[in-house]
Amino acid sequence: MKIQRNASIEAAQNYEVALDVSGLTKSYGKVQALRGINLQVQRGEIFGFLGPNGAGKTTTIRCLLDTIRPDGGTTRIMGLDPQEDPVGVQTRVGYLPGEMQFYDNFSAERQLRFFSDMRGSHADWSYARQLAERLVLDLKIPIKSLSKGNKQKVGVIQALMHRPQLLLLDEPTSGLDPLMQQEVLALLREANTAGTTVFFSSHIMSEAEHVAQRVAIIRTGEIVEVAETSSLTQRALHRLTIRFKQPVNGSRLEQLPGVEILSRPDDCSVVLQAAGDMEMLVRALGNFPVLDLETTRPTLEDVFLAYYKQ
Amino acid sequence: MKPFWTTFRYTFIRFRGQILGWGLGIASLGLILVPFYDIFMDQQEDFMKMLDGYPPEFLAFFGGDKTSMLTPEGYLGMYGFSMLPVIIGIFAVLAGSGLLVGDEERGRLDLILSHPVGRSSFFFGRAFAFIGATIAVLLIAWLGFSVLLGGSTMGVTWGQMALPFLPLLMQALIYGTLALLLSMLLPSRNMAAMLSALVMVASYFISSMASLNESLATISQIFPYAYYQGAEAMTNLNMTWLFGLLGVCLVMVMLAWWRFLRRDIRLSGEGSLRFWFSSPLRRKKVESV
Question: What is the least distance, in Å, from the CA of B97 to any CA of chain A?
Fold first, then answer.
């Protein structure tokens, strides 16, 4: 038993893959929430897990923490199996649930002390106070008097205050105002700089785009894409607005592969969408009297929506 | 051991209001009953006349008869200890059914168990806090029943007065652990509490009526109240019943623990768990959500 425990500790110290999920399945009755999730997050990464409500983001995270039991597949967190050694995993992880409920009669500080005690008093209390200051949260206020956003701040602090090796965050900026959203994302970047791997779920594409190095897109319990954020946006759809010197027949452009005309504001202009490589389109435009061409870089939102339209 | 003690400490502290409320409530009954015994004995003849007017079934229901009521244990049994299992049982059912599922249904358990506590430590920390709280309630109650004994002609010592509280503790633990086990098996806390309370009330009535109707005697044996001595324990504590009930409690706790280790923890707003044998109609309804 001791040998096994030592092996677990060693695995947790010498890992390169922070999070390794393979063939993860989970059903609720006849509803299949996860249909074989495969995912790898490297140590030191900030990884965005994107998908709309009900796609399986929360279920995946809860399987990783052993609060729900998968039906199949394997999971490793820093080399540890959450079902074999849940305490080992939970010691190293900071978790922020999507829906948070606290003890209403506790103050924010008492609630955080409670979580610290549940961690064997391993939280860095001065860091917790520092986080509260940055998030403009008065720790003396009873939980029942806090707004949803302020409760979210308590959740963020409890996830960060013990300086975990891995952060599992379920929609970390939910309920926060834009300024606080930026502050929380900054805190995540700082934690990452200090060596923490960050895995967060979101349905807000812009925050993943600003923070995540890689993202996975989940759709109805299946991962449909895992890629670097930058490559995902580069290889995706481009929107072009082209103005011509004289009226043209744009139907020739539509015959090009991957090109779709979105609108024709007038005879001398066209708004189109091009998928992937634009070389053929640019060549084809050489045969047109182009006055002006404006291209918009696709946001992750566009990419995401494109996957969901498929 | 630290997660166990942390869980125990926080849970026990959360019970403090209930400990005081239920403890003082039952203690106040003792504070009334003990001095009233002397009045009862002084006006014995009047009370006997009054009791003559009652049907003998009435006294039998409460486990006594006219002559036994003149003894301290008969008197305390009739007016106090015969009803106390139901009173302390309400506390036990509410506390037991909400011990884990209360936090789960409010959406707190998911976050708590994501901390490095371990489900076993957490379960036993809470279970022992419930046992501790029940003992604390009964300690306060015992003080209420004992503090005026010195000025009473009952001739009962504080130690003797403690003895009926042992079977009472077992009754509380039986209903509390039953509620805990049912909360692990049934879809909601309300259902677990309702079913446990049903067993408790049925147990009380069937066992009480068994002394009036012999045909109920056999069936009453399956209910916990049949093994409750009440004030009779002051003179003749039945250790077999005591340890028998303790054994049943242990079995129920272990089954609840086994189930807790294996089940998914619900999130806030997920609603009730489903029966594993839920009807196809109900399943269809859930799928369409």
Answer: 18
SS3 for A105?
Answer: coil
A246 exposure class (CB count in 10 Å sphere: 0-12, 13-18, 19+): exposed
Residues A257, A198: contact at Cβ < 8 Å? no
Measure the CA–CA gap between B136 and B86, rounded to whole angstroms: 17
Instruction: Specify which residues A75 forms β-bridges with.
Output: A21
> What pTM did the predictor assign?
0.84
Nearest-CA residue of chain A relative to B10?
A114
pLDDT tens across A50-67, in order? Answer: 988 888 999 999 999 999
Is A67 within 8 Å of B264 when comparing Cβ atoms? yes
Each as own residue / partner, the long-range contacts of residues A271-276 (CB below 8 Å, 24 or more positions apart, any chain) are: A271/A239, A271/A240, A271/A241, A271/A242, A272/A239, A272/A240, A272/A242, A273/A237, A273/A238, A273/A239, A273/A240, A274/A237, A274/A238, A274/A240, A275/A236, A275/A237, A275/A238, A276/A235, A276/A236
- Partners of B114 on chain A (C-beta within 8 Å) are 65, 67, 90, 93, 95, 97
Tokens of A278: 């634009």
Least confident of A153-162, A273-282, B3-12: A273-282
The answer to whether the Cβ–Cβ distance between B114 and A93 falls below 8 Å is yes
Cβ neighbours of residue A30 closer than 8 Å, sequence gap 6 or more: B283, B287
Instruction: Read off the pLDDT of residues A238-250 as tens digits, 9 standing for 90 and up.
Output: 788 899 888 887 7
Cα distances from A153 to residues A74, A196, B104, B205, B218, in angstroms, run 32, 19, 22, 53, 60
What ipTM was predicted for this assembly? Answer: 0.81
Q: What residues of B are in contact with residue A100 (Cβ under 8 Å)?
A: 107, 111
CB A284 within 8 A of CB A256: yes
Query: Residue A101 and residue B287: Cβ atoms within 8 Å?
Result: no
Q: Do A100 and B10 touch (CB under 8 A)?
A: no
Whole-number Å distance between alpha carbons of B195 and A263: 65
**Inter-chain CB proximity A114 and B10 less than 8 Å:** yes
> At how many degrees (to 10) do helices B119-146 and B165-185 cross?
150
